[in-house]
Amino acid sequence: MTAGTTLTARTTTAEHELAALQREHGRPLFALLLRLCDGDRQRAEDLVQETLVRAWQHPEALRADTFDSVRPWLLTVGRRLAIDARRARQARPAEVGDAVLENASPVCADHAERAAAALDVREAVKTLTPEHREVLVLVYFQGASVAEAAEALGIPPGTVKSRAYYALRALRRVLPGYAADLR
Q: Does pTM top 0.70 for this prediction?
């Protein structure tokens, strides 16, 4: 018998032992792991395979004369693998689907983009007439209501509304890239 024949015979014997192990203990192991995985069949099947790989990697544990069956060893290894898998899932952040990302509000890429936009708006506001600028600053930048702005400027509320309208319209012309934000 050559070295290649011995290696093939050993591999075949290990494969047969692993298949026999799976036939004899696979169902109870799967049932336990299915319960531990909260009914997730795919995860339970993966853990059964991982358990059998561990058994294949440690044949000395399966041939020990200290116990009658290898099932307790397999169940213990499977249970520990399930616990480790659960801990690993809890340790990393939850995954989000595409639907959540589509519904998310747009985010500025960085502070530089936000600062550049603020400078553009500031320069555009300087091009307005003083009357339009006063109304815009009070209503949009300081958060005053139409009535509060009218009282502060000593003009009727209708005038505040029309000046705000025309000020925004002028800004849309000066800031064409920001037109959607000025509605």
A: no
